[in-house]
Request: fold
Amino acid sequence: MPHDVHELTERTRAFVDEHVLPADDEHDGDVEAAGGDDLRRRLQALAREAGLLSPHAPTDLGGLGLGMVDRAPVFEAAGRSLFGPMALNINAPDEGNIHLLAHVASSDQRERYLRPLVAGEHRSAFAMTEPAPGAGSDPGRLTTRAVRTDGGWLVDGHKTFITGADGAGFLIVMARTSGEVGDNDGATMFLVPSDRDGVHLVRHVGTVDRSMIGGHCELALTRVFVPDEDVLGGVDEGFRYAQVRLGPARMTHVMRWTGAAARAHEEAVRYAAARPAFGSTLAEQGMAQQLIADNEIDLAATRALLMDACRALDAGSRASAETSIAKTFAAEALDRVADRAQQLCGGSGVSRDLPVAKIARELRPFRIYDGPSEVHRWSIARRAVRRLGTS
Amino acid sequence: MPHDVHELTERTRAFVDEHVLPADDEHDGDVEAAGGDDLRRRLQALAREAGLLSPHAPTDLGGLGLGMVDRAPVFEAAGRSLFGPMALNINAPDEGNIHLLAHVASSDQRERYLRPLVAGEHRSAFAMTEPAPGAGSDPGRLTTRAVRTDGGWLVDGHKTFITGADGAGFLIVMARTSGEVGDNDGATMFLVPSDRDGVHLVRHVGTVDRSMIGGHCELALTRVFVPDEDVLGGVDEGFRYAQVRLGPARMTHVMRWTGAAARAHEEAVRYAAARPAFGSTLAEQGMAQQLIADNEIDLAATRALLMDACRALDAGSRASAETSIAKTFAAEALDRVADRAQQLCGGSGVSRDLPVAKIARELRPFRIYDGPSEVHRWSIARRAVRRLGTS
Amino acid sequence: MPHDVHELTERTRAFVDEHVLPADDEHDGDVEAAGGDDLRRRLQALAREAGLLSPHAPTDLGGLGLGMVDRAPVFEAAGRSLFGPMALNINAPDEGNIHLLAHVASSDQRERYLRPLVAGEHRSAFAMTEPAPGAGSDPGRLTTRAVRTDGGWLVDGHKTFITGADGAGFLIVMARTSGEVGDNDGATMFLVPSDRDGVHLVRHVGTVDRSMIGGHCELALTRVFVPDEDVLGGVDEGFRYAQVRLGPARMTHVMRWTGAAARAHEEAVRYAAARPAFGSTLAEQGMAQQLIADNEIDLAATRALLMDACRALDAGSRASAETSIAKTFAAEALDRVADRAQQLCGGSGVSRDLPVAKIARELRPFRIYDGPSEVHRWSIARRAVRRLGTS
Amino acid sequence: MPHDVHELTERTRAFVDEHVLPADDEHDGDVEAAGGDDLRRRLQALAREAGLLSPHAPTDLGGLGLGMVDRAPVFEAAGRSLFGPMALNINAPDEGNIHLLAHVASSDQRERYLRPLVAGEHRSAFAMTEPAPGAGSDPGRLTTRAVRTDGGWLVDGHKTFITGADGAGFLIVMARTSGEVGDNDGATMFLVPSDRDGVHLVRHVGTVDRSMIGGHCELALTRVFVPDEDVLGGVDEGFRYAQVRLGPARMTHVMRWTGAAARAHEEAVRYAAARPAFGSTLAEQGMAQQLIADNEIDLAATRALLMDACRALDAGSRASAETSIAKTFAAEALDRVADRAQQLCGGSGVSRDLPVAKIARELRPFRIYDGPSEVHRWSIARRAVRRLGTS
Reply:
């Protein structure tokens, strides 16, 4: 780790410990997930002051311009609190949207959408997933349609699991502009202010995780007008842009969740080291040592796979294979880490006395979000067969 | 399964489907866990009418007098709803307390405490566990003390994780009447109405599970007077009675949780059978079939180990080895079942759209409650070494 | 366990300890697997003398007539030595063939084939499996054909993984007498003395396991004549008879392998109890206790599932679901048991110093033989979907 | 990977495919493990000719001077054949001994012992491990003693699991020169020609793995004279030197075994891609895809952890934590890879028809050799507690 990244990581960690963790517990389970935008604005103001806001954003927009490798330790340090990524403006989906817009937005869009997003003035959402049998693990099932109208497009469709949609300033909506359902091209991305006519928040899906500001929402889009200047990039180029966003977004998820799981592990080790047991401490018992060691191993392997993928991304590769493997391993390994942390802490591991149970609850869906492990395994296996099967 | 148990099981299942499951979802996450006593009274009245209330209680008190083997399918059918055991009055800790009182209570105690408990007129709690380093995995660490006073005893101590304590009619309090902390004898059980002076509910521990009526509570006992007629059984016999309660209580937990996990599995199989995927259904995909098959195997093995232990208990054995193995396996296997069910259901498996996520949340603590898996493994291993190690 | 089965089990165990285990080590790795027929005849003579030969065979043929439930502990006791089942004449495939012939053979066949088989005068093989893409996990792929000729049939085909074929007195050959490859009927069973013209032993497959007398062989059948009196049961009834054989044969495999795994576990526990470590013994270390406890749990669950299936078989059910679940669980659990036993024994667990490594090596293929776990899971899942998927 | 390492890796792979793999199968199970020194000399001559011999050795001795990071892909390519490391002279223990001698040997020892070792003129062994309760997982239990005599030392002791001892040109013997059994210092390394009086090969331990030339041997050392010029490095510095050898030796084991496991995986993928199943190929079945994907993930995580540790070693760190985690993960992950490969190949996976079963057999002991996983977990946990437990 270069010196300045190390220093930035340390400062991030200290900032999270001092300012963010205290807000973490008190807001758990709020009706308005993750404390709401008031808390977000308060924490982001502190992060701005500390020079920590939007470290991944382009420097000309006020970010620190960190590449993927350099993001990893910083994002992990932020992820130790469930609200840390929100405080630093590196939360999903904003973080991925910043990445996407930085690559694709026109200079005008850059000013209207990206700059205020980097500054924390509004939030965003990425509206791709649809209720079954629409776009999901297979994006080509995209059914939302945009048709030409005077000076722009009219979008109709139904979206679900749209993270952060409630309260977002704008949505990036993926809609089909050509081809048929099942085609792997013909999609376009549209920038849509959330208060535009025809955008309707149907409901919060009501997931077990509750730390994402704006929740995971179901949206109905009814004849939503999008002027030509709000088409993001080229018409029919949406699937290609989604790939640009995909790999890095997978990996920053891993970074953040590694931080959360590492914190659960730390809490559990501290608990075990302090807890008397059988004339010594719990941490001296063999079965507890096994839980602790397995957590260390899972965290180390997660980070090692993550860094491999980040190096590939920084080198300009799409790194689909590397990010798919790293995501799949990480989602399962971090879930195990949190589960073992719970087990180590006994009753305190399944109650509010420690943050461990909460972290476990938040982590579980990561084995499903961003592609269920089974879908990743399917594509990993197919790659292996293509590479090895005919030699 | 004998015919009448089969029929009773079917009726229980139908009753739960018709009357209990509808209440299940709507009360999740209530401040007052498990819907509260109003709901309990309403459901128990329906169960009484259906002839299903307290099937394990002695027949002279209005129960059906089911042994352990016969309880298994009935309790499992009830457990399919998180509120089913409450509706049938076979919930922990009442179920175990009924079992205990039927064996130990005087005829006077039988009328004052047991009969109304069987009838659902009040609830009870079993106050043994204490905050560390008190009684827990090692009951001999019991620190709550009872000292002689005129006509009875004065009890002082601190209890935690006391299930159902909030709103219970009475507590069975385990207190040390002789010996020192660390001794494996010298404990006595006391029957204590919850409104007795000196009984103070400190807090709900705030566990992740929320389906136990009366929650899991921390209690302070300060100079609580217990008259001699409310000593349960003999003085200094408490640890022996706790053993009477222990094995069956472990197994009825397994029965109920098997029902919950089986329901999660059923929901997941139905979901997978209905969900289109890759030109067929999700249930036709190999990785989904593996999840389904592993659930079938885990459920079958859980039931097989459970029935082995129940046969041993019905034959009069204490069955410590069998119940320890069955509990440890079941707690882990049922947790896996619920986790796989979540994975099968994708986004719906981590949201309120299906009951699967809720069941998974409720099941997790069972690997810690009633003895963490690690403590059970420790005793299982020691038994194996005694049996095999020197031959 | 009824008294006499308990006593028979104890006698079997003592017999194996005294007479069979000494032969076990010295013959490992012989070119002629499992010591050969000289050793077999010597051990079977001792077993006959001890009244232990062929305990599962019909009483009128000199067996003890044990049902499935009663076989379980006896076969497990025999299985503690890799040669124990051979010594008692309850080895695969003879044991299953005795079971099959007792159900299907004509009285003449009974005298010519079954009686000497029960008496240990010759061995047998069951020739169903064929090289891919022939009969295997899918028996309907049967390609070996029998066509009518004067006074009998001419059989042509290719078989592989035919256990015990080298040195067998006769084969039970499954051949297609009607229908096409892929049909699930149209097969007939033929009794074929091994020295019949046209029966050719191509090779020993060379599997990692080496304790099955007669090995696992590949056979070529070229215009093998079978007279009508050697058709086993009815023409075109072969698949139905194979089902008769299947369930019990699966379960007796489990019985025998449970014995082998239990012995590995016992050896490991004894090793750990005697081995000094960290001021105590290895068996007192937490991670070792976890290995020991997990073995106890896996063995208990294997036996519990096995007994469930045996009760169903004794009650007259085909028990396809129960035997499939029990076989799948057992094959994986017993493999884990042997692996943990190896780990507990350190260097001695991967050398000839203890029988543990040898048992692990013999057990591994059981996850593939008699249907790979994946094929069983496929059928288990399909049953679950049929049962639950549409309700 | 820098270009020349990539090219060297490709050449190594081609060399192994052409020259070494053909010898691999035919020598399996030889009494003289690994084909013996005639085969070694033949293969090493070919490697010398190809410029591939001893790539890790110092350039002034004719090696290529590869650091740890650069060794990884080359050693993995060699490890694809069980005899590949022998052919390239990068087998344990010679490889580690070359590393050790290059750091510690005097210039005279360098000429007499190291140069011919690099050239493949003789082999070596590292004699540290002793029968229990001597030096093993706890090196401080060292009981072999060296006492001063005229012009040198007399060594007495008992060693076991000494890899390659049979036929080795010389041994590096670890003996206690001061302190008591249990002390973590006071050891010295001695260079001992194998034909020196008093060196006695007691037996081959008879492990399940059979690909290490010279086997794993038990040695008796009786008044073995070592002249002063054959003391390796300083007196009483042996434990420190052992640490120098330890980390790199752990990692080169991982490199070689990764190659073996990767080959088993490749064979299995090819088998699955070619095998018809259910109207498609086995490789298209979901459960097979899961096995394939899990292998890809385990291999990727193994390599990622390995490279992390190698970077740390190349940077001059002792990297005890990194190498311990990487070794523990790798030993278990590679064992899983080989096991899944076996399962994918069905009957061919447990026979000699494919090299998969053989590779699985060779890999199993790696979870025990070089520190059993349990001992590594113990030290990993203790490190975690020291780092986290008191903060």
